[in-house]
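Propose amino acids for all 723 sites.
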């Protein structure tokens, strides 16, 4: 069935039908009839979706997607890309849900359209050079399928071609974006033709006066050149004909924008830059390229040092060609590019050239997905470089751009931050400023509240909410990925540990002084300071911290402060006041994981060098092992009225029954306790042991939890586990 036999039921206007038939003719030249029919169906779908919409110029909206598809067809892109070109605005502009595109077409096409919409949504605001670079990287990073970029470039190209109807300020914004973002991306992908057109259109819209002056100068200069140009062209042609070669000889004129850049960057005056006669000679084989080079050097004298062999050593984007400069008649410089047809195609269309070339020769269908092809492209570039014996630096560049390990996100002010993949809102906060990181309490991602641990995605806008007096949380260390966040959190915790150690050390020393019937208040300051400097401390804080961290024995320090003859009572009466544990000394007082003491348990403290105090229950099995170091033990007790959350472990034996874990979990949270961890011991039989780590306030609270669980029908046994 000929798709053209179906009249388009979209518009009574003749023009769109002309456009679509134009596109169809082009497609039939290189695609299968079935594919062309499918594309026509996409056209009907798109026309219906855009029905009633108009462009600023007043023409029906569907003109634009058809033109985009035509640009893609001009590059011989595959059928899914063409369909994506036709549908590229339906999700963004007509509210057509992505699911509908999936059901009407397929997942692949829906992903392409969705990818283009996502790129359209991110807005480029800043003018900074570095920002533009990051923006380009962000765009490439957002793209899973490189065809999305090709569709987007075609979209931008058509928008630039029809920019004239826009308001002046909008025109300039789009033009700047084109020059700073899209043209360099096209360049990176080796798509020379598109890049040159984007640049000239962008330049014309950005600087209309300069553009007019320059093109006028070019028009005038062209007349003067004509004679010399013809003379050189026929001389070269004649020389090539003598050798009986198959060749194409093209004369090139510099594009306005590249002329402008050369003049702006003071490469030379207009005359110097423009009066270069540039030719391209395209031949069938690599060997012929070198032969032609020899002929050219024989015909005109080469300018020393200007010969470049990009065949042996291709450019980063895969460009290959021989370049040389010759002294022409009257001493005019002649630039010659010599390359094969294949190289010429790559030079014009870059990655897109590779595309069609692969898809037309490879009809097996295997390995057809776009990611594989993009990798294939890179692999072949690599191969080419390797054969050329050149460094692999180019590959690094291209690879980083196409499959980066970074994410690029916006600050609320529109600046772009580059973070490693997996970075979270906390990493972002520290990247903005250390103070922002240290006081952050929540994040808004794309205006929605999100947990601080949320990993960031490309293109998101992240806002950090801070509060004065807020502090970094040690738990952040479990998910931050940047060195800056990590070191700042550690630094803060170290300070915190120091503060807590000072406080604990002071209390430990005071307690030890009590044991020998004195106290910090009673010991004269000179005594304390004497012991302090004898022990090599500069300040009392340093001394207290060292005691608190367990590096110095509080008792020994106390004895030195109170001379023996002043001791009225024997040491270690056994009735001395134990050290009160408040449960808030998180950095220097640790609760042993073996027995997990909670308020109400009888406890003892073990001084651990450098860490501070470790609290065990008196009944802990590990105690016997540590009994041999009585000097390291310290009497401790819970401070009365202690508040906080403590971890306890319970073991529940249950009969295997569906939903038993859920029932238990619900019951536990009913009692105001949080579940921190659950592990399950399957024992193959009818029963299962569940180990819960839960948070409780004290022994009473734990007892309440146990009572509630015991009532449940499937629970056989319950005990507090002590490993
Ligand atoms: Mn568009």
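Proposal:
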């Amino acid at each position: 069935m000929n798709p053209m036999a179906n009249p388009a039921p979209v518009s009574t206007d003749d023009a769109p039908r002309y456009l679509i038939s134009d596109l169809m003719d082009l497609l039939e030249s290189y695609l299968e009839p079935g594919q062309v029919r499918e594309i026509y169906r996409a056209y009907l779908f798109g026309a219906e979706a855009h029905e009633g919409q108009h462009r600023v110029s007043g023409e029906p909206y569907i003109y634009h997607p058809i033109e985009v598809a035509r640009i893609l067809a001009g590059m011989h892109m595959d059928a899914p890309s063409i369909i994506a070109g036709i549908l590229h605005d339906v999700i963004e502009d007509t509210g057509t849900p992505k699911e509908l595109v999936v059901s009407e077409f397929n997942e692949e096409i829906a992903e392409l359209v969705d990818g283009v919409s996502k790129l359209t949504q991110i807005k480029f605001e800043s003018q900074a050079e570095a920002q533009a670079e990051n923006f380009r990287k962000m765009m490439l990073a957002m793209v899973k399928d490189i065809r999305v970029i090709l569709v987007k470039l075609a979209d931008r190209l058509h928008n630039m071609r029809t920019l004239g109807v826009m308001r002046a300020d909008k025109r300039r914004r789009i033009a700047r974006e084109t020059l700073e973002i899209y043209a360099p991306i096209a360049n990176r992908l080796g798509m020379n033709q598109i890049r040159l057109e984007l640049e000239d259109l962008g330049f014309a819209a950005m600087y209309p006066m300069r553009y007019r002056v320059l093109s006028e100068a070019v028009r005038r200069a062209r007349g003067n050149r004509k004679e010399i140009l013809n003379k050189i062209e026929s001389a070269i042609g004649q020389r090539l004909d003598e050798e009986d070669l198959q060749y194409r000889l093209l004369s090139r004129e510099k594009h306005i924008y590249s002329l402008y850049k050369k003049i702006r960057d003071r490469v030379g005056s207009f005359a110097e830059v423009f009066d270069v006669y540039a030719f391209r000679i395209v031949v069938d084989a690599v060997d012929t390229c070198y032969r032609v080079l020899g002929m050219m050097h024989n015909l005109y004298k080469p300018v020393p040092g200007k010969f470049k062999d990009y065949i042996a050593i291709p450019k980063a984007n895969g460009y290959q060609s021989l370049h040389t400069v010759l002294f022409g008649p009257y001493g005019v410089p002649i630039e010659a590019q010599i390359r094969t047809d294949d190289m010429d195609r790559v030079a014009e269309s870059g990655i897109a050239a590779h595309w069609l070339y692969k898809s037309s020769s490879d009809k097996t269908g295997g390995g057809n997905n776009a990611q594989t092809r993009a990798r294939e492209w890179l692999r072949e570039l690599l191969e080419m470089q390797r054969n050329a014996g050149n460094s692999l630096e180019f590959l690094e560049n291209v690879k980083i751009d196409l499959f980066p390990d970074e994410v690029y996100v916006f600050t609320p002010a529109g600046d772009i931050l580059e973070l490693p993949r997996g970075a979270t809102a906390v990493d972002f906060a520290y990247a903005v400023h250390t103070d922002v990181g240290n006081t952050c309490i929540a994040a808004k991602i794309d205006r929605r509240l999100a947990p601080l641990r949320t990993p960031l995605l490309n293109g998101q806008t992240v806002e950090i909410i801070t509060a004065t007096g807020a502090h970094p949380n040690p738990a952040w260390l479990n998910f931050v990925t940047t060195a800056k966040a990590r070191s700042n959190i550690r630094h803060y915790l170290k300070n915190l540990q120091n503060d807590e150690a000072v406080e604990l050390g002071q209390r430990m020393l005071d307690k030890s002084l009590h044991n020998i019937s004195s106290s910090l208040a009673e010991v004269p300051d000179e005594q304390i300071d004497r012991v302090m400097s004898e022990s090599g401390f500069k300040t009392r804080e340093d001394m207290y911290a060292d005691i608190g961290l367990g590096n110095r024995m509080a008792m020994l320090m106390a004895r030195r402060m109170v001379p023996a003859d002043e001791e009225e009572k024997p040491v270690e009466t056994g009735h001395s006041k134990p050290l009160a544990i408040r449960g808030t000394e998180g950095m220097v007082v640790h609760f042993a994981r073996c027995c997990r003491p909670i308020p109400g348990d009888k406890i003892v403290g073990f001084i651990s060098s450098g860490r501070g105090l470790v609290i065990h229950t008196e009944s802990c099995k590990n105690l016997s092992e540590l009994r041999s170091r009585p000097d390291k033990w310290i009497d401790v007790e819970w401070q009365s009225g202690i508040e906080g959350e403590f971890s306890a472990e319970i073991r529940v034996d249950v009969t295997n029954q569906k939903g038993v874990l859920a029932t238990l979990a619900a019951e536990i949270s009913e009692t105001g306790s949080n579940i921190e961890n659950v592990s399950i011991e399957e024992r193959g039989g009818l029963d299962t042991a569940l180990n819960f780590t839960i948070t409780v306030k004290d022994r009473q609270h734990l007892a309440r939890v146990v009572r509630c669980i015991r009532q449940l029908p499937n629970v056989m046994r319950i005990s507090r586990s002590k490993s």
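The CA atoms of residues 494 and 587 lie 9 Å apart. The longest helix spans residues 208-242.
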